[in-house]
Amino acid sequence: MAATARLISRLTLVTGGGSGIGRAVCQRLASEGASVVVADISEESANETMKSLINNLRGQQHTAAVVDVSSKQSVKQLVTSIQTRYFQPPSVCVTAAGITQDDFLLNMDEEKFDRVIQVNLKGSFLVTQAVAQALVACGAPKGSIITVGSILGKVGNIGQVNYTASKGGVESLTRTAAKELSRFGIRCNCVLPGFISTPMTDQVPEKVINKVLPLVPLGRMGEAAEVADVCAFLASDDSGYITGASIEVTASN
Ligand code: NAP
């Protein structure tokens, strides 16, 4: 729940905003006063999120947009359309779009490996690059780009060689982006969620959940809103001296 209105007059973009963590981030940013562009590959789910957003705070104007983050053309079109509508680029961007296509290393086929890298890693690159280019071009004084990695990118996970590789890449991409973009006033940070209850983890078999949960000291899965809390902090000036950081949103040892 928002404690403040730290994001009044801020234009924000959230990819993967139609579901799970991305949807919770949209709701949290809007509850702090931001205008939110909810971008997702599914128009229907982006619209559903948009309808759920608080829109009565000063100057708020939300938009739902379709994007495929793995396509450079689609990402460029998205950023251009935001600038056309709002006469500015988003100064906050959260890249929550992501997919899994699991298999064991010995069986993983090339297509599954490539698709997960394209959406999770290349998608984060394309969105970070397009937003940063737009901010630099218009001389914006500050920006905050928040990528969504995963704790699994650090520790690995059986059956997810493609996903864990993509998320390790997202974290190091973010560190490099932070170093390159700090001179333009753009901060870049990565959140590393643990085991969060969303439509993505709804696919995990119950027997796996029953094995994992006893290893979590808090004894429960996290909520998407708990990841959104951290994203809102990183979006706001309360994190003004934090860049290049990875923040774990986990309850692991
Ligand atoms: P989710 O509920 O499946 O949400 C992901 C959203 O991204 C969906 O709306 C999905 O649309 C959209 N999407 C997929 N491919 C896209 C593309 N090419 N372009 C634009 N949007 C696309 O999953 P989630 O659990 O909220 O995950 C959000 C992010 O958190 C992901 O990056 C995930 O890897 C990361 N994460 C999740 C957990 C967890 O435990 N849940 C833990 C660590 C990290 P469709 O549903 O139509 O495909």
From TrEMBL:
A Pfam short name: adh_short_C2
Spans through the membrane: none
EC main group: oxidoreductase
Molecular function per GO: estradiol 17-beta-dehydrogenase [NAD(P)+] activity; quinone binding; testosterone dehydrogenase (NAD+) activity
EC identifiers of the protein: 1.1.1.239, 1.1.1.62, 1.1.1.n12
Assembly, per entry: Heterotetramer with CBR4; contains two molecules of HSD17B8 and CBR4.
Catalytic activity, as annotated: a (3R)-3-hydroxyacyl-CoA + NAD(+) = a 3-oxoacyl-CoA + NADH + H(+); 17beta-hydroxy-5alpha-androstan-3-one + NAD(+) = 5alpha-androstan-3,17-dione + NADH + H(+); testosterone + NAD(+) = androst-4-ene-3,17-dione + NADH + H(+); 17beta-estradiol + NAD(+) = estrone + NADH + H(+)
Pathway note: Lipid metabolism; mitochondrial fatty acid beta-oxidation; Lipid metabolism; fatty acid biosynthesis; Steroid biosynthesis; estrogen biosynthesis
Taxonomy of the source species: Eukaryota, Metazoa, Chordata, Craniata, Vertebrata
Domain Ketoreductase: 10-196
Protein name per UniProt: (3R)-3-hydroxyacyl-CoA dehydrogenase
Encoding gene, per UniProt annotation: hsd17b8
SMART domains recorded: PKS_KR
Compartments it resides in: Mitochondrion matrix
Family membership noted in the UniProt record: Belongs to the short-chain dehydrogenases/reductases (SDR) family.
Sorted UniProt keywords: Fatty acid biosynthesis, Fatty acid metabolism, Lipid biosynthesis, Lipid metabolism, Mitochondrion, NAD, Oxidoreductase, Phosphoprotein
Gene Ontology biological-process entries: estrogen metabolic process; fatty acid biosynthetic process
Source organism of the structure: Austrofundulus limnaeus
Superkingdom classification of source: Eukaryota
